[in-house]
Structures are given as C-alpha cells and as structure tokens.
Design a protein that fits this description.
The structure is a homodimer. The first copy, chain A, is of the alpha+beta class and about 250 residues long. Chain A has helices at about 20-30, 40-45, 130-140, 140-165, 170-185, 200-205, 210-225, 240-245, and strands spanning about 50-55, 60, 70-75, 80-85, 90-95, 100, 115-120, 120-130, 185-190, 190-195, 225-230, 235. Chain A binds a DNA duplex (30 and 30 nucleotides) through helix 7.
Chain lengths: ~250, ~250
Amino acid sequence: MTTRRKTPVQVETVEPATCSVGLRLSILQKVPFFHVLTADEIGIVNEQFREFSFQPGEAIYFSGEQAAKLYVVAAGQVKLLRHSLSGQDVLLDVLQPGDYFGSFSPLADERYPDTAQAHTAVCVLSINAKAFHTLLNQYPSVALRVLDITARRLRETQEIVRQLSTDSVGQRIAAVLLKLAEKLGEVSNEIVLIQMPLSRVDLAQMTGTTTESASRIVSQFQKEGLIRTGRQWIAITDRTRLEKIAGIDTGG
Amino acid sequence: MTTRRKTPVQVETVEPATCSVGLRLSILQKVPFFHVLTADEIGIVNEQFREFSFQPGEAIYFSGEQAAKLYVVAAGQVKLLRHSLSGQDVLLDVLQPGDYFGSFSPLADERYPDTAQAHTAVCVLSINAKAFHTLLNQYPSVALRVLDITARRLRETQEIVRQLSTDSVGQRIAAVLLKLAEKLGEVSNEIVLIQMPLSRVDLAQMTGTTTESASRIVSQFQKEGLIRTGRQWIAITDRTRLEKIAGIDTGG
DNA sequence: CGCTACGTTGATCGCACTCAAGTATAGTGG
DNA sequence: CCACTATACTTGAGTGCGATCAACGTAGCG
C-alpha cells in the first residue's frame, strides 16, 4: 500500500478498536507510573478507568472547569494550551501515549489552569481525581514516579522560561525543533522527521511568536539547508548546525 | 527603638543562633510537607539534616553540579537562577522559609539545572538526596505533599511562560509585583510593602527584560500613583489599577 | 566625604510584530 | 481526473516596543 502522499507524517487514525475496553489493560501497563505495579494490581486499577476518544481540534476539557479527573493518553497526541485575555494561545506541551494530564495532584476544589485539546485523533483514559488520590496513597511507589515525572516537567518548563527571557525567536524555534526531534524523531536517510502534524501556528504558539515570524525563520532554516519542510511537517537535516543556533545565535 | 531608616524593608540578620541545632526541630515542623508527621517522627527526621548559613550573594550550589542534596529554607530568602550562554541570568523563584529546593525527585545521577543563591542572609537545612528518597518511601503522606507543592510550582511556571509569550513588559512587571505582594505583602496605612530587598535588576531578571526597561516601567507606575518605590523596595498603593494593567480578571 | 552599587533618563537602533496581499497544497465533489 | 475551495504558508512594507549604548544622579557605607 504505497499510496502517494504529500505529507510524510503518519496520521494514525484512531479506530474504535484502539479505544476499546479490551486494550485498556495493555495501555495502562505502558504508563510509566504504573510500570511498578504487578499485573494483578493493574487489573484492579484498570477498573477505575473509563475511555474516551476525540477528533482533532476537539477539547478534552477547558481551562476554568472544575478539575475532577486525571487523564492518560492512550493513543494520539494531546495539546495543553493556556489562553490569554488578548486571545492568543500558548502551547505548553504536546503529550504522547503514556503521558498524563489534568488533575494529578491531590488538591481539592481546583480548576484546570489550561485547556486540553486533541491534536490528532486521540484515545484517552480517565479516572476520578479522588480515586487517583486514593491510588497514590495505596501505592506509594506510583506516587514517587508521578513526583518524578512532574519534577522533570517543572525543570523543562523552567528551561522554556529561560529561553523566552533571553533567546531570540530563531534560537527558540531551533530549540523546539530539536526537542521535538528528540521525542518524536523518525530517522531515515540521514534526515530526522518529526512525527507529528506541525504547523507554523503550532510552532509560533510553542515559542511565543507570531505565525509570520515562525514562517520566516523556518524558510530561512530551509534555505540554509538545516531542515526540510512542507505543509504541517518538518524534518531536520543538519542537527549539529541547528544545535549551534539554539545555543548561540548567529545574529542574522 | 525607632531608628530612622531609608529602606522600609526589614533586613533580618540571621544570627548564628537562628541556624543552631536546637532550633532546627521547630523549623522542620513548619515545613509544609513534614506537617503531617508526629513530633516523634520529626525528631527522627531531624537527625538526617545538617544546617548551613550563607551571606547575601553567596551560592548554595551551582548549576551543573551533581545534584546530591535537598535543601529547606530555614530563615532568609533564596534565589533560584538559570544562566544563559549569553551571560544573562533568569530569576525563576524567590524561596521563603519552609520552601524546599535542590534535588527533591528520586532521580539518580542528575545535575542541578539551576543555581541557588542566598538573596538575604539565609539559613538552610540539607539532607542527602537518597536519604530524602528513603524518607518519601517511609512516609507516603509526605511524598503526596511534595507532589502537591511541585505540581503547584509547575502550574505557576506555566503561567510565567504564558506571560512571557503574550504580555508586554509593563504587564509582566505589574503581575510580578502583585504576586510578590500576595506572598510577602506587609500592609500599613493602605499601602502594601513587599517585604524583601527588590532591585531593578531582580525585577528585570524575573520578567525577562533589561534593568533600564524595568526602571522606566517602575518610574512610570510611581508617576501614575500605582506604587511607591525607593532603593531596593517597592510598595503597592493602588492594587486595583495594577491588576487591571496586569490583565487579571478582578471578577467585579 | 569619597567610593561603590543602584537607579534614572535620553538617544538611537533593530528585532519582531502588524497589516496586507498573494501563493501553494490538500481535500472535495462534479 | 480536474475544477473548486479551504486552509496552510509565504513574502513585503511599515511600525513600534523594548534593547542597547551612554551619561549622569543618588543613596548608603566605610
């Protein structure tokens, strides 16, 4: 089945089967913080989860809503967004299968500070926040894994603060491309394709700039032979030089 | 003893006694995540800690060093900084007594991503990272409190990312002043003094701008009657208008 | 009293935003 | 298969916010 596609990005369609009850167990086993549990324990945990699927662009929850659930990505990708009063959205993170989001700290009466939106077609598992809290009490090793991952996310977010405070748009875009390639890179013929639909808007929202500026930088990078790009996709062809830019700005 | 001072900020000198062994126990009791422990348990935990004091400007640890310890602020204030290759520093957080920093997630072989620096004279308690990890395993309720606080910090840091991505320098400075006033505000005669040494450099490093821009904004705010300010101190005189500038929904 | 660090203010420059018009691509239905 | 449409993307011209460079004022401290 080698149909001629323009985009090299695999848009995995989430069939109903992917989101079925039967496969939930195998998905939960892959979740980092349940990895420490035995098969029997996961079986018990599994009963607490419900599954839902969303189409690209659909909101899983909105910022401001009562934070009542913890979610786990089973398949597809989920965007975490913060909104500004001015109307601009900031893309905080793109979550992969196995990643959790929503209400994961045992705080009562909180609201979601961000909006979770399906980036591709997704299947998510959800558990009541209180039930998750009980679970953390029951399995301390799980709580430590959750702490571990949350601490890592904090450090990564602090690094983004540093970049926004001190780096140029070009540096930030180079950095985000390298980070995405690290996470989703698909190597073939010396080039690294970022395996996700990635528009100029996405890129702009991730780096605190405008679509136009993101477009200009991306075009420039391509002209310089650092990347190859098309509609909704980017592949890195010269990682070393891109790393140099991300670290030390060439100035223009 | 009302001596005439130019700065209204109380520069609390940390006497040797403040950092003595005898007072450690009472300090640990005030640490949020040990609050759940009994007096006996705290006594045991206490033996694992050592105390150190630092003068303003001294580094407690440098970024890049092996992350071997968890620290708790006992007295004074600690700055968390990230450095850029360009030489600019970003001020991520100003920690208060009871706040923890350093290596608090049970990751092995990590390095500090930031530098911890004494902002005022400080006394800190430290514990070996592995010993702290053991402690978290021993007292799951403590681990949940740590997770709770870490998750809150993550949300706060994400909010800073949003601000840096979408807000103007003026908005960001207004927001940081309100946040500091919330945390350290000392009310007297309708005005709220931020109880910490706060220079234009600090303000600039917190909001991703330059000293000159920070100075211009602060001068402007004073001219408009929103704040009163002097060398190393700022007091808020018109919170409502400042909130409007910051873009916070007052809800009324 | 100087010295030093902090702070202010002015002039100028440039990066990135804004506004605007246009091109290319994927998907859709005839 | 091709026209048609919607969406993604590009590119240009002009502007402005905030950085940079520079000089000076001011508070605190020994």
